[in-house]
Amino acid sequence: MNITMNKPATNQAKKISSHERPTKVDVLEICDLHANIGKLKILNGINLTIRSCEIHAIMGPNGSGKSTLCNVLMGHPKYEVVKGSAKFNGKEILELDPNERANLGLFLGFQHPLEIAGVSMGNFLRLARNLNLKAAGETKQISPMEFMPMLKETVGLLKMDEKFISRSVNEGFSGGEKKRAEIVQMAVLKPKIAMLDEIDSGLDIDALKIVAEGIVETFKKTGLGVLLITHYQRLLNYITPDFVHVMAKGKIIQSGDKKLALELEKHGYEKFPKVDNR
Ligand SMILES: Nc1ncnc2c1ncn2[C@@H]1O[C@H](COP(=O)(O)OP(=O)(O)OP(=O)(O)O)[C@@H](O)[C@H]1O
Ligand SMILES: [Mg+2]
User: Fold this and answer.
1) Which of the listed residues 3, 63, 179, 253 has the most CB atoms within 10 Å of its CB?
2) Which ligand 1 atom is at minimum distance from the Cα of 60?
3) How many angstroms does the Cα of residue 195 sit away from the middle of ligand 1?
């Protein structure tokens, strides 16, 4: 059985001042989630609950299903959910299309961000933010005049040049620039739960710190729940996770706190119990 009972995230909650902490707690509850590609079982019974103001890290060997979990939660059509549920604030999301999931407040920062030719980052983000607001029942839309200063500030926080705002989304961006752009998106779209898939991969030492600071800043401002997928403890030096989970063969095989990540860094995955259910 998976060890997935979450304790209250007391240490992270303390990092958010009370006036900034969200009044309502958002909860993503994943229960016994199984998913396939064709006949191949990829997820084999994931149980995980992520709440506002919590930071969860998932680590695990290549091919263990970490990206698949994120993609299934966002509604990627290539996966078939064969069993289980994923509820956001009590509402089943597995039947919803990806847009509806995004409108509820789910966000995925991709391991390999997509390029969108011909659509500027500024226009894309303003449109996306306005669609989110509309779906939330807001009648007021954000004008370019209101949006630009906020976007410029966020781009500045990620130490990106303002020229990126007028460039096509991710087109020709370097690997590291794409990862920074994912965090700009997260900061602007203000999701309730953000899944960040290997946001640290391909970043140089300074960029890793900048991206981590961008995540922490957004976390402190909005109190969102974060699911960080990472291979390396070094990201967790900047972002203290409340929970660290080890995934293997489509299952969470162990959960703990940040000490678990240190243990993994030291010993690798060999010490962890093997699951063999494929
Ligand atoms: N279209 C596909 N056809 C066949 N197998 C696939 C397909 N997509 C994913 N898989 C398999 O699903 C498994 C899980 O992949 P996934 O990308 O979720 O792993 P991961 O834990 O994110 O790995 P990494 O750490 O390398 O990013 C892998 O064995 C992969 O080969
Ligand atoms: Mg992956």
Assistant:
1) 179
2) 21
3) 17
Report the DSSP pairing between strands 91-92 and 251-256: unpaired
**Number of the ligand 1 atom closest to the C-alpha atom of 198:** 27
pLDDT at 276 over 90: no
Ligand nearest to the CA of 61: 1
C-beta of residue 142 within 8 angstroms of C-beta of residue 130: yes
Cα of 82 from ligand 2 centre, angstroms: 21
Domains of the chain (ranges; CATH) run 10-267 (3.40.50.300)
Find out whether the beta carbon of 65 lies less than 6 Å from any atom of ligand 1: yes
Strands of the 27-37 sheet, one edge to the other: 40-51, 27-37, 80-88, 91-92
| C-alpha–C-alpha distance, residues 145 and 148, integer Å | 6
Angle between helices 175-189 and 144-157 (to 10 degrees): 130
Residue ranges of alpha helices (H) inside the chain are 10-15, 66-74, 98-104, 121-135, 144-157, 175-189, 205-222, 233-236, 258-267
Contact in structure between 211 and 183 (CB atoms under 8 Å): yes
Pick the residue whose CA is nearest to atom 4 on ligand 1. Answer: 37
* Whole-angstrom distance, CA of residue 267 vs CA of residue 260: 10
Share of the chain above pLDDT 90, in %: 85
pLDDT tens string 143-172: 999 999 999 999 999 999 999 999 999 999
pTM here is 0.90
Q: What is the mean pLDDT of residues 91-96?
A: 97
Give the residue, out of 34, 68, 253, with the most ligand 1 atoms within 8 A of its beta carbon, to mutate for a pocket test: 68
pLDDT-derived band at 278 (thresholds 50, 70, 90) equals very low
